[in-house]
Design goal:
Length: 166
């Protein structure tokens, strides 16, 4: 199973469209916060055909509308699930923790409760290990803070996490 992982969109619709085109074959999409405006949920749903899991970040101000848009974007083929601040998920037997904040993500990895911990916030893409836990920061869709637009694909079968640079 291939999981697309993105973070820190900050309303960059143009970059989001580009990123989603390369992730459209993934089996699920994870968004780690800082969508910013509620309309980004609609862009996610229009650009990705399967289940989308969202946690919010520090720049997601209108949470009520983000959640409402997520619920409205669901259909028979796809669920758009707004988990709030934190999510624990399982994909093909792999235990995932999703959080926006890098400092909390690193602490979660040290708990040894998860196979994969995904976080964003600092806009710096990385794939590292903490014991047996894979830490993934896909970087930023925004592209202006670090000057690089990036995302990640995690393969549950092989355990490979590949950072994509645009």
């Amino acid at each position: 199973m291939q999981i697309g992982i993105i973070s820190d969109i900050h309303d960059r619709r143009d970059n989001l469209r580009t990123v989603l085109l390369t992730l459209e074959e993934c089996d699920a999409l994870v968004c780690l916060g800082d969508l910013c405006a509620p309309f980004i949920v609609n862009d996610l749903a229009q650009g990705f055909p399967r289940d989308i899991h969202i946690v919010f970040g520090n720049n997601d101000g209108d949470l009520m509308r983000i959640e409402r848009n997520a619920a409205a974007a669901c259909n028979e083929e796809r669920q758009v699930i707004f988990h709030g601040e934190f999510a624990e998920l399982s994909f093909e037997g792999k235990r995932f923790a999703l959080i926006h904040y890098d400092s909390i993500g690193r602490a979660l990895a040290r708990s040894d409760q998860y196979d994969v911990v995904c976080f964003g916030h600092n806009h710096e893409h990385e794939v590292t290990m903490d014991g047996d836990t894979v830490l993934i920061n896909p970087g930023e869709v925004h592209g202006l803070v670090k000057g690089v637009v990036s995302a990640c694909i995690y393969d549950t079968e092989t355990g490979d996490a590949d950072i994509l640079i645009y």
